[in-house]
Design goal:
Shape: elongated
Structural class: alpha+beta
CATH topology: Methyltransferase, Cobalt-precorrin-4 Transmethylase, Domain 2
Order of helices and strands: EHEEHHEH
């Protein structure tokens, strides 16, 4: 269904915690896939391009609003995606994701270090 590739982006914002994905999808699958992507909550921007690479639709998203359940406010955007899907056979979708600053392993290591420090102080 999708072929994910890294994609450079001309975004001038801080890229240190951004991940970029790109995949091609049939127009008929576009609405469902966009809904899934938006509901993931770590997406900053979705860009839909035609096969020639021209931007057809760019959807900027606020991570907190989407994660907080504001999908209702995005229904007009999803309707526009549906209209677009009816007009095109295939599109390329680019996703700009917000990556967490710390991984679960980083947090676990920090907790373990803190517990060790507390144990040392208690034993003194």
């Amino acid at each position: 269904m999708s072929d994910m590739n890294s994609s450079p982006n001309n975004d001038t914002e801080n890229k240190s915690n951004r991940a970029f994905e790109q995949f091609e999808i049939a127009g008929g699958q576009l609405v469902d896939r966009i809904k899934d992507i938006i509901e993931e909550g770590n997406v900053r921007r979705v860009i839909i391009r035609n096969p020639e690479g021209r931007v057809l639709l760019e959807i900027p998203l606020t991570v907190g609003a989407v994660a907080g359940g504001a999908l209702l406010f995005l229904y007009p955007v999803i309707a526009a995606v549906g209209a677009l899907a009816a007009l095109v056979a295939r599109v390329t979708v680019e996703i700009v994701r917000e990556e967490p600053d710390a991984t679960i392993q980083d947090v676990e290591n920090a907790v373990e270090d803190t517990v060790d420090d507390v144990r040392e102080k208690l034993s003194e």
